[in-house]
Amino acid sequence: MSDKGREEWSSMLGFILASIGSAVGIGNVWRFPYIVGANGGGAFLVPYLISVFLFGLPLMVLEFAIGRSTGSSVASAFQSLRQRFFAVGLAIVVIVCLILSYYLVITSWVLAYALFFALNRPVDFGAFTGSYLPLAFFILSGLAVFATVRSGVREGIERVARYLIPALVVILLFLVVFALTEPGALEGVRFYLLPDYSRLADPGVWTAAFGQAFFSLSVGMGVMLTYGSYLKRGGLFRSASIIAVADMAIAILAGLMIFPLVFTAGVDPAAGVNLAFVTLPAVFMGMQSGMVLGALFFFMLFAAALTSAVSMLEVPVATLMDSYGYPRRRATLLIFVAVMFLGLPSALSYTALRFEIFGAPFLDLADYTFGTIGLIAAGLVLSVIGGWFMERSRICAEIGGCGWQQRIYMVLIRYCVPAILVITLAATLLQAAL
Ligand code: PHE
After folding, report:
1. Cα(144)–Cα(18) distance, rounded to whole angstroms?
2. Pocket perturbation via mutation, ligand 1, pick of 243, 308, 339, 372 by most ligand atoms within 8 A of CB
3. For 175-225, how does the pLDDT look when each residue is reduced to its tens digit (9 = 90+)?
4. Ligand 1 within 6 A of 95 CB?
5. How far, in Å, CA of 50 to CA of 207, rounded?
6. Domain ranges (residues) in the chain
7. How many CB atoms lie within 10 A of CB 50?
8. Class of domain 12-433
9. Ligand 1 near 72 CB (within 6 A)
10. Are 15 and 231 in contact (CB under 8 A)?
11. Can you state the angle between helices 86-118 and 290-324, rounded to 10 degrees?
């Protein structure tokens, strides 16, 4: 396949930073900590480690391999494996757009909070979402993502990650040290990490770990596939391991700052949206120099969310470029406008308009249908098409030969990953039905 003139990362480091940017997102900073807290504390790390290294990592390597070998993004990569898979690839692209549409809403809340704290304004979730300000911030954060992707792989995506990821790590480390030295911090750490191994008998804990691992690593949606298509050479296992370890380390560290702060303030470690947008802001506002800490925290969260949203936007943009011959700028503009419209119901769901379906805010529903069910289904399709329809020799060529390690890898990718995804999908649907 000729891919002359295809954009490329400037270096392996650039590629790894951009991929870490994609993986490290809102999922790490608040979803991971509360899922750990709700699923057996430190014991949850057992299924989580297994999910990341046995299933998530192989799928990431497969995505990189497909992308690099075909030199194209998900729809045209599928098409080059079998003509009829093109439509399947397009379906995955649509799912990514739908996930992006609500992910951007949360990103925009984070941006708003960062500004409120920086401007020393008190924040109140109800008052904020009850106004029309969220809409303005939704457009603003959409524009930031748009501008980044429009500038291209190297000048946009890679450059933004090169600045934001190191900044994120520095801020996070500072906040962790600060939180751990507060009086009473140990109680928070205990709540967070004290293992309750009896919970491991609960299958729900395992499916929670699988779902969280795939979401957090950004695998299963063609994002890593697209990023891999801009990579010319270099070991895929090594890069994927670095990305997975960084993603996990940042998630664990995030919990090490959040729970000590919450416990120091003596408030209930609530889960979900409340933790990041109600509980933590209240904790910050009650602290000396809390406004600065809050601004730092939300800026860090915004950096994480922005680089993830960028990776999602790149998927449909690359599709328009690869399959329909659009120039990057026009493709980005078109998708940006489409995603803004798609995101409107989510953006309005917590405002005074209260856009709800069956009594649930549209955003929560979108997170469940697209971000949970859609993501698992897409991952399943991706692993089956990649594992079974791409020739073995072609996969081997990307992952460094056909030795015994690669044979184990093929078993994982052909049998274990699809099996786990089918089980997770069934269990998730069953839970919803009960
Ligand atoms: N991994 C990102 C996070 O943890 C979310 C994401 C999912 C990004 C899928 C891209 C693709 O928030």
Report:
1. 16
2. 308
3. 999 999 998 899 989 988 888 889 999 988 998 899 899 999 999 999 999
4. no
5. 12
6. 12-433
7. 16
8. mainly alpha
9. no
10. yes
11. 160
